[in-house]
Specification:
The protein is of the alpha+beta class and 611 residues long. The chain is built from 13 helices and 22 strands. The strands form four sheets. Strands 6, 8, 10, 11, 13, 16, 18, 19, 21 and 22 form a ten-stranded mixed β-sheet that branches. A five-stranded mixed β-sheet has the order 1-2-3-5-4. Strands 7-14-9-12 form a four-stranded antiparallel β-sheet, with no helix packed on it.
Length: 611
């Protein structure tokens, strides 16, 4: 995998990106507030009539499809003029003939797709046909891209194919076949493309292409541009990220069209990165998102939906890979968010095989976002492309210079649910940090201390209070407050900084344990019995659950060593690793990390396996 940036060398591309950022700022004004279908209607009407630049229309079109019957009469009339039909269960743009189909008199069938396009007029694609097969090169590029995307998502990742529309009555426009329809059109405004939901699958919401019973599966079609001139990426890259994003929406609609838009958009952006890792179009959402870490992960609308892809990037890299994301969507079918928000429960259910849940992943991501490193020292908090990201970490809420003998406090009243705030501490003497939730239950909030050592390693402590001894040689110290639950409506808190204790003087460390350096290190499977395994010593000063496992330098779990409760014992508990994975197979030679997690502390140590 790579993390290459692309240079926006054309002024048109730069101007387009600035325009998009202005739109994000405007829509972002509503972040944290409840989004309404009426607002979705206004965005869609503006996009189709006044060419107001909008990068993503799909979530607003889906909102209108599901809830458009409740719109006021004037908005219904405006949408009807644009081809929206209010006579079916879902409000769509089909009224005899799909508006996007008008003027597109050419078709090209390839794989599961039918591509509709034109060679004349304002909707025409570039007619260049270098291989003289009567199919424009542009359409062949579009076809190759969509079929590559479908192969990755359906055949390799194991998702169900979106429901077909071949069952529709003869007087309904289904594109003329049961293929999945893609319309290559002259789209108004400056958006990449969109996915238009149409009807409940087979009229009852059950996808015929799956082996389970869905309730909210809907058919759809995709519209993309006939020309991407002036966009930040080159033509092929623009087609690729659009295809990955929008076709995954079509897949999502086949699972549960009632799922919450933040989950749909964040995972669609994540899918762009999975399939086209070297394009990195997702980077454009990161500065805004990391500039406002106090905004909820699932905040309504705005740029934040898309920037929240980083949560699923963390899950992908550290908590089970792409299979975990697929499990989340499988669980969404069962949980059914039509009448309530079960997006977080679907994530928890999908993470269960990884011994994790929504809050656990949220806290770990918050730590990883501050560490922001691609090095092996970051351990379970590593992002593979962190060193290439256009951010160095989240915005800092407060900077505190602590002096001994002076109690200092920090108060916050703007932390939203499922969000985080970071305070940097500068201190020369030990400091104890205590978190107090001033607006709700204590366990709504979690406190972490993150320290980078002068040797490039990291120390993470969790819980409250936390004792921090800067004489251990820390390059920097941050504490982060994470609002991990949604039991209340406000997440106000206070941090108190008081005199701490030098670590060398602590004889009883609450919730503490230690991990010794592994030995022998390196170890060699071809040598004597002694050298065929490495020993792992853990000392526990207070009873707690300890997890010990092995990961490779890509952050993938290789083997589980121990997961259980350990009583106090001041002589080490001894564990071993023989260079094998959980099914007994030898792993390749190389450098691995031994990870030990307790209630408050997390340690990782390097070990080298030779052959």
């Amino acid at each position: 995998m790579t993390g290459n940036h692309k240079n926006d060398t054309h002024q048109t591309g730069l101007a387009h990106r600035r325009t998009l950022l202005i739109i994000y700022a405007l829509t972002g004004l509503l972040i944290g507030k409840e989004w309404t279908t009426s607002q979705s209607a206004e965005i869609v009407i503006e996009a189709f009539t006044n060419q107001t630049p909008v990068q993503h229309l799909t979530p607003y079109l889906l909102d209108i499809a599901k809830n458009g019957h409740s719109l006021p009469a004037d908005q219904k009339i405006a949408l009807q003029r644009l081809g929206f039909n209010f006579s079916n269960k879902l409000v769509s743009r089909s009224r005899g003939t799909r508006p996007e189909a008008e003027g597109l008199d050419q078709i090209y069938d390839q794989g599961i797709f039918r591509f509709h396009y034109s060679l004349s007029g304002g909707q025409a694609v570039d007619s260049t046909d270098n291989n003289a097969n009567s199919i424009p090169d542009y359409i062949e590029r579009v076809s190759e891209t969509f079929n590559t995307v479908a192969d990755r998502i359906i055949n390799q990742m194991g998702y169900y194919r979106p429901p077909g529309d071949g069952w529709l009555p003869a007087d309904y426009d289904n594109g003329g076949s049961n293929h999945y329809d893609v319309y290559v059109d002259s789209i108004t405004a400056n958006y990449y493309g969109y996915t238009q939901s149409e009807y409940f699958a087979r009229d009852d919401g059950d996808n015929e292409n799956s082996s389970v019973k869905e309730n909210n599966s809907v058919t759809s079609y995709i519209v993309i541009r006939n020309d991407y001139t002036g966009f930040p990426n080159n033509e092929l890259e623009s087609i690729q990220v659009t295809a990955a994003h929008e076709f995954f929406h079509a897949v999502q609609f086949g699972y549960d069209s009632a799922e919450k838009p933040w989950l749909m958009e964040a995972t669609a952006v994540w899918m762009e990165e999975v399939i086209y890792d070297d394009i990195n179009d997702c980077y454009q959402y990161m500065p805004s998102w990391f500039g406002s870490p106090h905004i909820s992960l699932d905040a309504s609308d705005g740029n934040h939906w898309y920037g929240s892809f980083i949560y699923f990037e963390y899950i992908d890299e550290q908590l089970g890979g792409t299979n975990t994301i697929r499990r989340i969507w499988e669980k969404s079918i069962i949980l059914n968010s039509k009448n309530d928000d079960y997006s977080h429960l679907a994530i928890t259910s999908g993470l269960a095989p990884e011994l994790s849940d929504f809050s656990d992943a949220l806290n770990k991501m918050a730590i990883a976002n501050r560490i922001m490193s691609s090095t092996s020292q970051a351990g379970i908090f590593r992002y593979e492309e962190a060193d290439d990201y256009p951010v160095t970490g989240p915005a800092t809420f407060r900077l505190i210079a602590f002096t001994a003998g002076n109690t200092q406090t920090i108060n916050s009243s703007n932390l939203q649910k499922y969000a985080s705030q970071y305070t940097r501490i500068i201190a020369n003497t030990p400091v104890q940090v205590t978190l107090t939730n001033t607006s709700g239950p204590e366990d709504d909030l979690m406190l972490h201390a993150i320290m980078k050592t002068t040797t490039g390693d990291y120390v993470v402590k969790s819980s409250s209070p936390i004792n921090i001894d800067p004489t251990n040689g820390y390059k920097w110290i941050y504490v982060v407050v994470v609002s991990q639950k949604a039991d209340g409506t406000d997440w106000d808190y206070q941090l108190s900084l008081d005199d701490g204790v030098y670590d060398s003087l602590i004889t009883d460390r609450p919730e503490d344990f230690s991990l010794a350096n592994p030995y022998p290190n390196p170890f060699n499977l071809s040598k004597s019995q002694y050298h065929r395994l490495t020993k792992i010593d853990v000392t526990v000063s207070v009873p707690q659950r300890i997890k010990i496992y092995i990961v490779n330098l890509s952050g993938r779990k290789v083997a589980s060593i121990f997961d259980g409760y350990l009583p106090t014992k001041y002589t080490p508990y001894q564990f071993t690793w023989a260079g094998r994975n959980d099914i007994g197979q030898r792993v390749p030679a190389g450098i691995y990390l031994i990870i030990a997690e307790g209630k408050q502390l997390q340690f990782w140590k390097k070990v080298t396996l030779l052959k």
